[in-house]
Amino acid sequence: MKIAILGTGVVGRALAQGWLRAGHEVVIGSRQPEEARLRAELKGLPVAGLASAVADAPVVVNATPGTASVELLHSVGADALAGKVLLDVAVGFTEDGSLSHLGESLGEEIQRTFPRTRVVKTLCTIDRKLMIAPDSVQGPSTLFLSGEDAEAKRTVAGLLGDLGWSDDSLLDLGGIATARGQEHYSLLFIGIAQALGSYGFGIRVVEEAA
Fold first, then answer.
1. Radius of gyration of the chain, Cα coordinates, nearest whole angstrom
2. pLDDT for 92-151, tens place per residue?
3. pLDDT at 95
4. Residue-level pLDDT at 102
5. Would the pLDDT of 12 be above 80?
6. Residue 197 CB: number of other CB atoms within 10 A?
7. Using CA atoms, how far apart are residues 191 and 197, in angstroms rounded to an integer?
8. Which residues contact 184 (CB under 8 A, 6 or more apart)?
9. pTM, to two decimals
10. Which H or E run includes 121?
11. Is the alpha carbon torsion for 41, 43, 44, 48 positive or negative?
């Protein structure tokens, strides 16, 4: 499957490497592809302009800064994104470290702005290393999915499986409104990381004993 990853940062690059290893065709979309190709961190990764990257990719990954995501997606165009699965990883932060999306999540804003695109929020509750190496921590972690389209969620679940996530590690929270919880967890994530001195951790939902 061809996957277009929008964003040339550490998250986009990590996901690109993970899905390339799994045998997928991956292209990274950049607003300045010529400049991006010269960056040492992107060596060996295919880079294209945004429209070119998205054109024939059934899955688009939003790994851009959350405060710029909607503007960037507008530059791609609603028609170009129509019908595609959009896996949204991003969380928006303001300059003072606060969340940019409070009453409405970024995932909701993207779905509302691009109603013909099938948005699935996931992967925003963990660090990039764990995204592509779920066995890198001491025990199983839970990964969450939010979105309105059941088929899109199945597609995303399959892609997460290709990164090493088992079916029983995935928890479907429901519609895209539940993306608020995923994004707001980022504040707790930062607090835990500061307490541990590391971003190398996951969380696990544990049910009560029978």
1. 16
2. 998 888 888 988 999 999 999 999 999 999 999 999 999 999 999 999 999 999 999 999
3. 86
4. 87
5. yes
6. 7
7. 10
8. 99
9. 0.95
10. strand 118-121
11. positive
Q: Is 147 helix (H, G, I), strand (E, B) or coil?
A: strand
Helix (H/G/I), strand (E/B), else coil: 122 = coil
Q: Per the structure block, which two tokens stand in for 149?
A: 């389209």
Element containing residue 15 per DSSP (H, E): helix 10-21
* pLDDT, tens digit (0-9, with 9 covering 90-100), for 82-101: 999 999 999 999 888 888 89
Report the C-alpha gap between 157 and 175 in whole angstroms: 15
Position of tokens 């995935």?
170
Helix (H, G, I), strand (E, B) or coil at 63: coil
Token reading at 83: 């019908």
Query: CA 196 → CA 78, 155, 191, 202, distances in Å?
Result: 42, 34, 9, 12
